[in-house]
Specification:
The chain is α/β, with parallel strands linked by helices and 745 residues long. Helices cover 42% and strands 19% of the residues. The strands form six sheets. It has an eight-stranded parallel β-barrel with strand order 4-13-18-21-22-23-24-25, surrounded by six helices. A seven-stranded antiparallel beta sheet has the order 5-12-11-10-9-16-17. Helix 1 runs parallel beside helix 8, helix 21 crosses helix 22 and helix 22 packs across helix 24. The N terminus is likely disordered.
Amino acid sequence: MEPVNTESSKQSSTSINYATNERVSVGKLEVNSQLYSFVNEQAIPGTGVEPTKFWADFEKILKDFTPVNQNMLDKRDNLQSQIDAFHQIEPDASFETYKSFLQDIGYLVPAPAPFTINTENVDNEIATMAGPQLVVPINNARYALNAVNARWGSLYDALYGTDAIAFDNGLEKTSKYNPMRGMAVIQKAREILNTIAPLADGSHLNSKSYKIVEGKLIVELSSNGEAIQSQLVDPSQFVGYKGSNDAPTAILLCHNGLHAELQIDSENLIGQSDPAGLKDILLESALTTIMDCEDSVAAVDAEDKTLVYQNWLGLMKGNLSLEMKKGDQVIERKMQADRKYTAANSSDEYTVSGRSLMFVRNVGHLMTNDAILLNGEPVFEGIMDGVITSLIGKHDLLGNSAFRNSKKDSIYIVKPKMHGPDEVKLTNDLFNAIEDMLDLPRFTVKVGIMDEERRTSVNLAACIYEAKDRVVFINTGFLDRTGDEIHTSMLKGAFAPKANLKQMPWINAYENANVSIGLDAGLSGKAQIGKGMWPIPDQMANMLAAKIGHPKSGANTAWVPSPTGATLHALHYHEVDVFDIQKQVATSEDALDTILQIPLMEASTKLTEEEIKREIDNNNQGILGYVVRWVHQGIGCSKVPDINDVGLMEDRATLRISSQHLANWLAHDVITEEQVQTSLLEMAKLVDEQNEGDPEYIPMGPNYTDTIGFQAASALIFKGKEQPNGYTEPLLHAKRREMKEKLAS
């Protein structure tokens, strides 16, 4: 996810740029004419799919899976009702009684016998490589292109343009190039190079030149005033080059499965800065990217969904492009070609992908969308996403693209917000039906399971088992996971202050169990085990200090908020051999009891009025700062200033935890409605002030309570207890549609 940019841009390709409420009747379906035209005229041609059969098969899938999907949602509600009643009837029940109750109602299911996943035809970026992962809103073509091209990033730019390394006074970043700061970057980059490609003798800090002799990389060094030659400790790390043996312009190295390209100015025009002419180091960075249709996207109707699908088609066909205007200059952004080199030990070509491998994240099982009606009713959006994104993915499989995404003929779909193994089985069955519909071999469509709901966490092995032939990804997420934790146990008691929740035993047990259960199920070498987002894109030094814990835990990917963040996080995978760590991770102990511990506020805790106000204000400011952009502007993900003006990358998961936390404290009289209302008005004024510099921002003031964004934020809190599993989508979608109608009129 990447901060919003206000540069003007124009998306090119065969765009559909009109909105309509007209519908086309196809059997029992009524399809918005804009979506219908897109599917028939752009998505289907070239896939070998016959349009009439497509819509007939689509109708059958909707008829078959709509009742199953609804039954899953009814089960969620039924389980929540039973849990609410249990906490009211037996408020002082022992843990053993509580756990037994969860087993009796089917919330906890028996773990499967030991098993290993059978997933085949998985691309190396997922199965055998370890590195950063980006998540971007797919409705923003600029972000999508930046992300897919973030497979490679400049280490010099990442170090120079961020706080990743500490600079002495006088080396601050300015609009003009600071030579002293630049020298500090070169020094740091060479230190990093000693980690990536250590020399048998000496250090890259003293390199004078890089040459190839008889297929080996030879580094000339200056040592005590004398010139010496050295090789790599592991000569096989040198895999390719550009230019000549005596004057290479690029040298390609490989370490822990990741590539690094040394870019050399062969004419040594920068010799004063770098005697070896080393002008940059490009790092293989974002190995994979999730093109998101869900939490980071505000897509509420056929117009929005068509844009989502249109951009996915452009990515799958390799022709998505964008014209950017910076002043008088027009820049075209498009997908990068593969990187080609001469192999180190022969004249053969050595090719590395120039692009991040793409997943697409569909929406979950909850929401419906009236882009298509079945028997007059909006269809489940997750089913619609599954069918249409898979149809589009077929272009990649058939080679209808300038660039291949999957070299193993797979389509990768992340399915979020599934509750327990029954819902994973629903997804697996749906993907079976979609494969049959599109004439795809079984298990072509792979699935990523987001381990972000409580009923999934406590039944994770059973969830993986239900998708054991197609699972390629499991991933934790603190915000959604905590939001569901609060909602599930809403009536048990008041939860601890939000900042304390991340320090409590249950969350560490959850994070550790995700890795060990995934490894027990055989994901190593076949699938990703992922960790969540670093939320502060302007604090890269802190990210470098904290996020190394993810590869050290045995996770072979983790989310980062920007291409620059991906380049810096890639350094962690050079420091840590994740697959070696995975061999050392112990078989999962039974962490279930710890995960099930409800993180309530200690009975002895007495919060001061100041502490309570700070908690309310912090939550309200975060809610309003995100909601007003979502509802008023249709921005599903952006860098939002927090109450202290620190930019945080936010999507609906942030909103879920904050609104549920306030709803919980209201339910247990820790706070009053009057306190929340007073704070909402104060924070709405602050949020408007924080966004004064954005010409596209639509303020809530001066009549705050009359604005749709303010009303949405209030409803999320005061109606939070009754929202399905604490989700924000139903209210947000309704308010965004209301806002779109208001803007249109």
